[in-house]
Design goal:
- It is a single chain.
- This protein is of the alpha+beta class.
- The chain contains 3 helices and 5 strands.
- The protein is elongated and about 45 Å long.
């Protein structure tokens, strides 16, 4: 599991100081981008050099506990399935520490689910096989 730290800012919360549910999806998107980056892969370069983009095809989430203003979160990413033109990830959001706690260890699961992304031709927006070189990078690991 790859983890990316995210701090909850005031703009991420509703009037009660609780993370707005859609922002968990934003946190997961950032973590998937950083997961790719850990392999030396930049999404803008994939678009320009390989002519592909990744788009979310489906999401299934369970919201288990609220995130709160100033929480330090750890957003997890694990590749669970690779197909010719799609990737399926298991993702988690854990509260790592509150504002008064410097303990970096994740300790409370807030949100968990699966996200499937499709590889698309950047111009035609039609499914396209994931390039072999990218598959090799991802399977080799960071």
């Amino acid at each position: 599991m790859f983890y990316w730290p995210v701090r909850v800012y005031y703009e991420d919360t509703d009037s009660g100081g609780v993370v707005y549910y859609a922002n968990f999806l934003k946190f997961m998107e950032r973590a998937r981008t950083e997961w790719l980056r850990s392999f030396g892969v930049e999404q803008d370069e994939l678009r320009v050099r390989q002519g592909i983009i990744f788009a979310v095809r489906s999401v299934s989430l369970e919201f288990l506990r609220p995130g709160r203003f100033n929480d330090l979160l750890q957003v997890g990413v694990a590749l669970v399935e690779r197909r010719a033109a799609s990737l399926r990830f298991s993702q988690t959001v854990l509260r790592a520490a509150g504002p008064e706690d410097s303990d970096p260890e994740p300790r409370e699961l807030l949100c968990a689910g699966e996200v499937q992304v499709a590889c698309l031709d950047a111009v035609r927006l039609r499914p396209r096989r994931i390039p072999d070189a990218l598959i090799l990078e991802v399977e080799r690991g960071p």
